[in-house]
Design brief:
Radius of gyration: 28 Å
Strand content: 15-25%
Largest sheet: 5 strands, antiparallel
Number of strands: 5
Distance between the termini: 68 Å
Structural class: alpha+beta
Order of helices and strands: HEEHHHEEEHHH
């Protein structure tokens, strides 16, 4: 291969690299212009921030989806203008007022029936005072409540607390090494001697 051919190949690669760098810059500019710098992608909790008069200064994407309104429709409006499935505007204002008044987070758990799916949902609403305002965070705890309701018939509250705090899917089968004592079961020994441990 001649020296001229090598130089042509190098020039071609340099041009292609420059084109790719330009495309990357354009993509980064597009991303910055279409997203809020305070948005956390993938966050399923609803976050609403207000100023000291409880006028909305920020709502995340999960909040927009839940109330079915865009940021530009709610930013600047009073928290009492927010409504959506499970969200009572007067209660939101009460929670924020309590958080600011007492200077500590104010938590409430509540349930509602979603109007579209007719499914029961459980949410935890946490109101927190901030330097120049307040914040509401709404977390869907339906899965935890389902676990709690399923197991509370069979196990003690301490076991339920341990299960829910581990953050694992309790309905997914897993193998564990256990010791189990069975007592006073007629015919158990003869039956179990022919079975696998599972």
């Amino acid at each position: 291969m001649s020296e001229d051919n090598i130089e042509n190949i190098i020039e071609t690669y340099k041009k292609r690299i420059a084109e790719l760098e330009q495309e990357i810059r354009k993509l980064k500019e597009t991303q910055v212009s279409t997203t809020s710098p305070r948005t956390i992608f993938g966050l399923s909790n609803i976050v609403i921030q207000t100023d000291s008069n409880f006028n909305i200064t920020y709502i995340n994407s999960a909040g927009e989806n839940h109330i079915e309104k865009g940021r530009n429709e709610v930013v600047g409006k009073h928290i009492s203008s927010i409504s959506g499935p499970g969200l009572n505007p007067d209660k939101l204002l009460e929670y924020l007022t309590n958080a600011v008044r007492f200077g500590r987070p104010y938590e409430v758990e509540t349930r509602y029936i979603h109007p579209k799916s007719n499914k029961e949902h459980f949410i935890k609403i946490t109101a927190t005072a901030m330097k120049d305002g307040a914040q509401i965070m709404i977390e869907d705890i339906s899965k935890l409540k389902m676990i709690e309701q399923s197991f509370k018939k069979y196990v003690s509250p301490k076991v339920i607390d341990q299960i829910t705090s581990q953050g694992v899917d309790v309905f997914k089968p897993r193998k564990y090494e256990l010791s189990v004592l069975f007592a006073d079961l007629r015919g158990f020994t003869s039956i179990s001697s022919h079975l696998e441990p599972e």
